[in-house]
Amino acid sequence: MDQQIPVFIITGFLGSGKTTLLNHLVNHDDMGETAVIINEFGEVGLDHLLVDSAFEDTVLMQSGCICCSIRGDLVDTLNDLLHRVEIGELPRFNRVVIETTGLADPAPVMQSVMSDPACIEKFRLGGVVSTVDAVNGINQLDEYGEPVKQAAVAERIVMTKTDIASANETGSLTGRLREINPASPIFKVIMGEIHPDQLFDTEVYDPTTKIGDVQKWLQEGAYDEDHDHDHNHDHNHDHNHGHDHVDVNRHNSEIRAFCLVYDKPIHWKAFKTWLESIISLRGNDLLRIKGIVNVEGSDGPVVVHGVQHVFHPPAKLNAWPDDDHTTRVVFITRNLELNDLEAALDAVNSV
Length: 351
Hints:
Elements (H helix, E strand, L loop, with lengths): L4 E8 L5 H9 L7 E5 L11 E3 L5 E4 L4 E4 L4 H13 L8 E5 L6 H10 L7 E11 L3 H7 L2 H7 L3 E5 L6 H14 L5 E3 L7 H4 L14 H5 L13 E2 L5 E2 L14 E8 L5 H15 L3 E8 L8 E6 L2 E2 L3 E2 L10 E8 L3 H12 L2
Parallel strand pairs: 1-6, 1-7, 2-5, 2-6, 7-8, 8-9
Antiparallel strand pairs: 3-4, 4-5, 10-11, 12-17, 13-14, 13-17, 14-15, 14-16
Helix pairs in contact: 9-10
């Protein structure tokens, strides 16, 4: 396998429909050449789909999808699957889907895929899908921290049980999810019925090619509700960011999403110092960072992508994807303020 295999994480709170979604996905013809790692086979109805159950903890579906039950360390499970492909025990796969438990924090799984030396040579993080219950979702988001974080870090949100939820429940939950995660598309599904391509889009960001659809990947406009944000930075570093408006991107007093936009080219050493200091001091509160940086003296931008303390190696693009050459960094954070991050970046870039 010459290129890194994208790994997608399906997460979601207890009872939010992950199992129903997986039951639909593993039966889909377009899930061929996919390895699905789930917690317990018993919860997923596989019996009528089995072609070969000779491999311990592994089954091969009629669709061509490989399903296995995680045993011990995730990275060991991933590499064991690759080994079995290499020795001819299993067919090749070009995508991995991992289901977390309902109470799981997806960040450690994301970090393992992004940083474990035994993993990063062969795998890369493709994205996160979060299921949310349309009937009980509002109450769960109010009462528990796990579903908030699961929704906040997702690139795709699947709203389940929409057939039994009222229009008011669905509308209120959609608004709430937009507060938590302004950019990610929300798919409303019944009984988990959705095409795999809608959830497992590998073109959004692919560090193996050093480029993707950057606008789609960042979606920075979603974090600026008035779309009139003033990001001027003059040569004296005085600036007006226009933050006097009501912040609709704050979910509660802890988790919020925003996009830092910086017009001036940035010294890479200064940006690196700034980012490393945030990671060192507040890494646990950086739920997700992704951005494109205008580095002084560089023809193309640099892409940065991280989760808490773990970051992909910066990827330099040969050219800008469009005429907008501003630095744009999307943050999903806990108890961090945009103004403080902007002031700190101004300070290091002015030295």
